[in-house]
Amino acid sequence: YPMIYWMNKDDKADPCKMLLSHPGDSVTATAVSRDGALIATGFQSCVVRLYDIATGNEIHSYIGHSGPITSLCFVGEQALCSASRDSTLSLWNIKEGHRLAVMKGH
């Protein structure tokens, strides 16, 4: 009789590097910076959060949209762009944590 060995989990360490938990809220968009140091997450609650990938610490929360976040992208090393169901794009300063611009009708 042949013997089958079923392995449903890798023997190596868990490849999951971070677990982002905000009870009652759903992640709707993510983006990773070009250098791999930062991850931005957009939520159903209209908030964008920026994390340090190495530590898992939240660096900034960006509040200003009135609809769920639909897309995120890093713009160079200084800015983050977020799109929302409120038909706006927001450009955020990564280091200082404030909004630089709002573009309506997008």
In short:
The protein has 106 residues and is an all-beta fold.
Any key phrases for this structure?
4-stranded antiparallel β-sheet, 106 residues, mainly beta
Give an account of the 3D structure.
There is one protein chain. The chain is an all-beta fold and 106 residues long. The chain has no helices and eight strands. The protein has strands at residues 27-32, 38-43, 47-52, 58-63, 69-75, 79-84, 88-93, 99-104. Strands 1-2-3-4 form a four-stranded antiparallel β-sheet, with no helix packed on it. A four-stranded antiparallel β-sheet has the order 5-6-7-8, with no helix packed on it. Strand 5 (69-75) and strand 6 (79-84) form a beta hairpin.
Task: State which percent range the strand residues make up.
Answer: over 45%
Number of strands: 8
Look at the helices and sheets and give the structural class. Answer: mainly beta
N-to-C SSE series? EEEEEEEE
- Give a short account of the largest sheet: 4 strands, antiparallel
